[in-house]
Specification:
It is built from 16 helices and no strands. With 295 residues, the protein is mainly alpha-helical.
């Protein structure tokens, strides 16, 4: 991504606020960056170098004031609640080389959200791939972070789905392994349970032509049952009631596939009552409306 040198520098210095000398150092830093930048295309490249620790004179006044990983994570999580994904990427991108799995998986999550809103399919797939790269880098740092495994399961599926059914099916067991690992590392995370339930539902409901492809790719093709799917969806709802519109929808769909119409109707109606704040919510409500008309 493009360097956000001057803004980053101002943010870093202002966060210190320990004494006025830090603020007075900003004009000097900018002037020094301009001198360093001459002949290198842009003056702000010098500011980025200073923030990166290239000039010893700023090592105390600027480098010591860099935000901690905990501060960055807290700010990123607040922005995520506000659905400010561009701001998260701008905040975390300068620190993607900081060897922090907590920064990297959050950067991957925000990039994934950007991908979903991309104007073109080409941009969408580029961003999904970039998001996966961030989370794979997080895994290389820490294999015991449940959120890393959760987001790997999501992003691997999205990236390989773009390459076709065969490519997506070839990663089915890898996706499931990451989901199971996420559930093991954090048994109280409802989203991980939802994802595992969706995996079982998908393979319980595989069309015949996909089954044929799967039989070519695997000696033992992936399989699942609606009972397994429902078990995980219900557990997710127990862990965190009403946490996700699509979990309510999938409980309703699972009951419907098992021939339990009264239970299906209950959860489809709950989906209809869910406050639609996101595109996922709107999709869930629209599908619930269609399904409930058939009951």
């Amino acid at each position: 991504m493009t360097s956000r040198g001057p803004l980053t520098l101002l943010r870093v210095v202002r966060r210190g606020l320990g004494h006025r000398a830090a603020l007075r150092s900003v004009p000097r830093a900018v002037q020094q960056a301009r001198r360093l930048g001459r002949g290198h295309g842009t003056a702000w490249g010098g500011v980025a170098a200073l923030v990166g620790g290239g000039v010893a004179s700023l090592s105390v006044s600027v480098m010591a004031e860099q935000p901690s990983v905990a501060a960055l994570v807290t700010e990123a999580d607040q922005l995520y609640k506000q659905m400010k994904y561009d701001e998260i990427c701008a905040l975390l991108s300068p620190y993607q080389d900081a060897k922090s799995d907590e920064i990297l998986w959050r950067l991957g999550r925000a990039t994934y959200e950007q991908a979903k809103a991309a104007a073109s399919e080409e941009e969408r797939q580029r961003l999904f791939r970039e998001a996966l790269d961030h989370v794979e880098a997080a895994l290389a740092i820490n294999t015991e972070n449940f959120a890393v495994h959760k987001w790997l399961s999501i992003l691997i599926d999205f990236v390989y789905a773009a390459e076709g059914t065969k490519a997506r099916l070839s990663k089915a067991y890898v996706v499931k392994e990451h989901m199971i690992k996420a559930c093991q590392l954090n048994p109280s995370d409802a989203t991980s349970r939802y994802l595992l339930g969706y995996w079982f539902f998908s393979f319980a409901n595989v069309p015949w032509y996909q089954r044929k492809i799967a039989s070519v790719v695997f000696t033992t093709p992936p399989s699942g049952t609606f009972e397994e799917a429902l078990e995980n969806f219900l557990l997710a709802e127990k862990l965190e009631p009403n946490f996700y519109s699509k979990n309510l929808l999938m409980i309703g769909k699972s009951y419907l596939m098992l021939g339990k119409k009264p239970e299906a109707k209950e959860y489809l109606q709950r989906t209809l009552s869910y406050p639609a704040k996101t595109e996922d919510d709107r999709e869930a409500v629209a599908e619930a409306e269609t399904l409930i008309k058939g009951l």
